[in-house]
Amino acid sequence: MKGREIRPNVYSVGAVDWDRRLFDSLIPLPEGTSYNAYLIRGSERTALIDAVDPAKWEILQANLEGVEVDALIASHGEQDHSGSLPMLAEKYPRAELLCSEKAKPILIDHLHLDPLRIRVVADGERLELGGKTLRFLYTPWVHWPETMSTYLEEERILFPCDFFGSHFAASALYADLNLVYEPAKRYFAEIMMPHRPQILKNLEKLAPLPLDLIAPSHGPIWRQPSFIVERYLEWASPIPKNSVLIPYVSMHGSTQRMVDALGDDLVRRGVGVEFFNLPVTDPGKLAMALVDAATVALGSCTVLAGPHPLAAYAAFLANMLRPKARWATVIGSYGWAGKTVETLAAAFTMWKPEILPPVYIKGLPREEDYVLLKQLAATIAKKHEEAGLVS
Ligand code: FEO
C-alpha cells in the first residue's frame, strides 16, 4: 500500500490533481485540487472513506494495493468523490457500501450502483472496526442534501468531505494556514455560500466534538481545526462587512467614470470598496468578495437593449450564490434606450436584496449625474451605519 499514515492505522490514500483548472465547467481552480480518501484499519475490519474522481482511479487503486476493504463509506454523491465507487464495488465484492438515507437514491441514479450493495446508516450510528470507532453524522447541505461526515472517536478526527475543503493541490498533508486560507475562502464562496444557514446548523451540531484533525476530501488536512471552524463561523454569519462590491463593465468609458465616482465617494465616507472589471475578472475572486460585502453596486453599460452579457453573468452568479449582502443597485450608461436596470434587478430571484435607487443615465455623465452618484453613496453609507456594520 502506498497511502500516507496520518495516525496509527489511519491513511490518506487519495489523489492530488495538480493540473485541473476548472470544476463543474464553471469554477476556476488556479491551484489545482485533490480528491482525498482515507483508509482506517481496525483489528477486525477496514473502512475506506470516500473515493476519487474517476480520472484518478488508477492512483487510488495503486494506493490500495494489497489492502482488503470491508466498508466503503460514501459521504457524498458528487462524482469527484463517488465516481470511482463502481470500480471499488467491483474490486471489493464483499464490501458493504455505507451512506446516508438521502445518498442512496443519488448513488443509484448517478452511478447505477446495485441497491442491494448499499446499506443506509442512521444519523449518529457507529461502526466498530476493532479499536477504531466511526460515528456517522448527517451534515446536510454542505453542499448537497445527502452529505454525511464521519468522526473517528479514538483519534478525534472529523472526515467531513467537502465541508471545510479547499481546491488546493499540495504535496504536504497538512495545511499551511498562510497558503490555504485563500483557497479555503474561495471554496466556501463558490460551493458553500448558498447554504449559510445550514452550515451554521452543522457547525453547531459538530461543536461538542473534540477535534484533533479535520480531514476534508479536498485540500490539506487542518491540524488546527479551530482555525477553519472560526473562519466558517465568520463567513457563514449573516452580518456583512462595511464594504461595497462594484463589479462593472464599460465599453467606452462612461460607466467607468460613474464607477470611479461612486467608489471615490464611498471611500471618503469610510465605506470599503472592491472593484472588479468584469472582462478581466476571475469569477472565483468575485465570489470571494461576495462573502463579505454588504452592498453590490453592479455597473453595466447597455448593449443594444439590455445589460452587457458580462454584467448579466455577474448578476446570475450573485443570485446563484445568495450572498449575505443586503442591498444592491445598478449604475451605468446607455446609448439611446434599453431595459438594463430592470433586466439585472429581475435576475435576483433567490437572493433578494433591497434595491437602492439606481443611477442609469444617457451617454457621458454630466454634473447632475455625479450629484446622483453622491446621493447614492450617501444612501449606502447611511444604510451601513444604521446596521452597525464594521470593516
Ligand atoms: Fe467535492 Fe461536492 O464534491
Commentary on this structure:
Strand 8 (46-49), helix 1 (57-63) and strand 9 (71-73) form a beta-alpha-beta unit. This protein is 33% helix and 23% strand. The protein is α/β, with parallel strands linked by helices. It folds into 2 domains: 4-236, Ribonuclease Z/Hydroxyacylglutathione hydrolase-like (Metallo-beta-lactamase, Chain A), CATH 3.60.15.10; 245-386, Flavodoxin domain (Rossmann fold, 3-Layer(aba) Sandwich), CATH 3.40.50.360. Helix 5 (177-192) packs parallel to helix 7 (225-236), helix 6 (196-206) packs antiparallel against helix 7 and helix 8 packs across helix 12. MU-OXO-diiron (FEO) binds at residues 76, 78, 80-81, 143, 162, 218.
Task: List its traits.
Rossmann fold; binds MU-OXO-diiron; Metallo-beta-lactamase, Chain A; 391 residues; 12 helices; 6-stranded parallel sheet; 24 strands
